[in-house]
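User: Show me sequence and structure for the first protein, then do the same for the second.

Assistant: Starting with the first protein.
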Amino acid sequence: MLISREMVLDQDIGLNGTLFGGDMMARMDMVAGITASLMSRNRRFVTLKVSELIFHSPVRPGEIIEFYATISRQGRTSLTIQIEVQVYAPVTDSHRDVTSGEFVMVAVDGEGQSESILWKPEAIQEANRAHETRKARQAGRKIPG
């Protein structure tokens, strides 16, 4: 599911003339928290683990980045979210993979203790459909309906 679309600004750029990797990771972490909140009725989530963060290609100032998130694992108190980031070029309507990673988020109460996730099944189903549609488009297949 598409979570966010942002433009990379000059102030986001590091010494190499591209988006600083730590900035990208922070943005992805926010997307993971937003995704967890959209898929549940819980108010608070914390990041337990980030793994397989891969930088596929650089992001330059003025480029538009899109964040796509899918839930790859649902637990009792945690969920694993796969995030893919792409540059979107509106003039050509094309995409380029730039970063991907996996974030484990834990639901916590007001005291910071883990709590059970109160899932929103309808939101998860809708997100899964959006993910399948996007993957089919990427594969060049025609989508029914």
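Switching to the second protein now.
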Amino acid sequence: MTTDGIEGFLVETRNYGATAAFWKSLGFENVLETGHGSGHWSHPGGGPYVFIVEQHERELVTHPVLKVADAETFAPGRAPDFAQRFTPTHWGVRQALVRDPDGRIVALESPLLDDKDRNDVAEGQHHG
């Protein structure tokens, strides 16, 4: 099994408010505000979401997020270069990070497997 296409984009910024205002001016609506410099924005016309994250510690990145129906059966035609294997996250998915041939990151996200994944996240054993 491969991916189900682009689900969203992660966009890091130095100024969450300014970046959120930019995406709002393009028609996106805030559907989840985290309260700590990040939020999920969707367009009412459909298409991929934009997840904005304020970042001050390193160089900013923007990368696509592809949907994977099942992390356990994910089997692309070419073995990916994993920067991070599928790991449960605090935002309710299993996420892997793979590198394209030029070293750019692409995120893969699938549903959490079971209650063990959820418990691991709750106990702080995994961080996305």
